[in-house]
Amino acid sequence: MSQFLECRSCGEKIEFRPETVCPTCFSPLEVVYDYEALRNTLQHSDIEGRPGTMWRYQELLPEVPGGIPDTPVGWTPLIRARRLGEALNMPNLYIKNDAVNFPSLSFKDRVVSVALAKAVDFGFRTIGCASTGNLANAVGAQASMLGLKSVILIPQGLEQQKILASACYNTQVIKVAGSYDDVNRLCTELAYREGIGIVNVNLRPFYAEGSKTVGFEITEQLGWTLPDQVVVPMAGGSLISKVGKAFRELIQVGLVGEKPAKLFGAQATGCAPISTLVKTSADELVPVKPDTIVKSLAIGTPADGRKAADSIHQSGGWAEDVSDEETVEGIALLAETEGIFTETAGGVTVAVAGKLLKQGRLDRRALTVLCITGNGLKTADLMEYKAADLAVIEPKYSAFQAYINSQQKEEKEHYVSAC
Ligand SMILES: *Cc1c(COP(=O)(O)O)cnc(C)c1O
Ligand SMILES: [Zn+2]
Fold first, then answer.
1. Which residue has a Cα nearest atom 8 of ligand 1?
2. ∠84-88-93 over CA atoms, to 5°?
3. How many domains are there within the chain?
4. Which of 115, 184, 198, 372 has the fewest beta carbons closer than 10 A?
5. Cα–Cα distance between 246 and 54 in angstroms, integer?
6. What is the pLDDT of residue 410?
7. How many other CB atoms are found less than 10 A from the CB of residue 27?
8. pTM higher than 0.90
9. d(CA 353, CA 264)
């Protein structure tokens, strides 16, 4: 057995099966690999010769006996962010852009690709999820693609765009009168009583491995170099922990040299249990009741909160949180400088990067990657102020000129009064 599930706490090893926690001590389970065997065999060229999808790292993803999926998920652009870098005074800044991931425009397509491959492997007929929105989109899209039955449970009060997009697929969307944590508890019960493959419950150890591909891709796209610093948004805390795991694995199997890569976590102040844990170094995470426009990160009891905080501390990084206003400013800044329209989680990431810079926690000159994880069209309503008082003109050249002149005059007056 070259891959198995291992308990993070007592070390018990079990064969792959749909399971969330260790049967002995109820701690989370983690997929582990035979790194020694890979160290002597896996080469850059093996990976580089494969199709541009997240499955190019198949040796470091859960085995799929039926064959890896051929859906082109992942391998999203890594962009040199020169203009945002100028605005923030960071000359060595990059953006990993999962806002354009396939098929549903968020990083969640990665975790769902792995979860559904294993769900098919385990023989589940129906799959499902508890979601803050993006996961619902990803499960709906990929379940439809594979012809699987699916049921999606969401807290009521999510963004209408995300609900609509989920409902368009061949799936059943159910709104629950409660918070994400209530939905998650219900899904845990469904997994065991109804035998449903819930991607982030009984398929969670496999699901979570999909997040590592963000770290693998960043490193390969930098020419097989680890970044010095990454800024990652946190909801349940899985993505940031797995980006850390990805970097360690690449070192372990010899695909990159040893180097410290600092993890920086980003949350919204209205739901910041993990960044609070990082900042206070408390023993236990304190659950919160979310109150923020950043719905995609609004998990008050994050399943991997402790692990995320530990990964951040061990890497030498830090975490911060920003207000809803700062989030909207972050969305606008990224759009205006890089032409990338992100959702609230991306606004949080950009704003937290700015805040950490001011604090001197982020090194200005270091090679830094911001993980942009979702698409702005899903939370576009928040940006309404940008288009609130757009002019309408007659379809005539003179009207255009008159409008432009009035604009310039206004700008000039603005300028004069500012002096
Ligand atoms: C789910 C999500 C995250 C964070 O995911 P976790 O692994 O739960 O921390 C980040 N960004 C977006 C857009 C998400 O939907
Ligand atoms: Zn255990």
1. 236
2. 55
3. 3
4. 184
5. 13
6. 72
7. 14
8. yes
9. 9
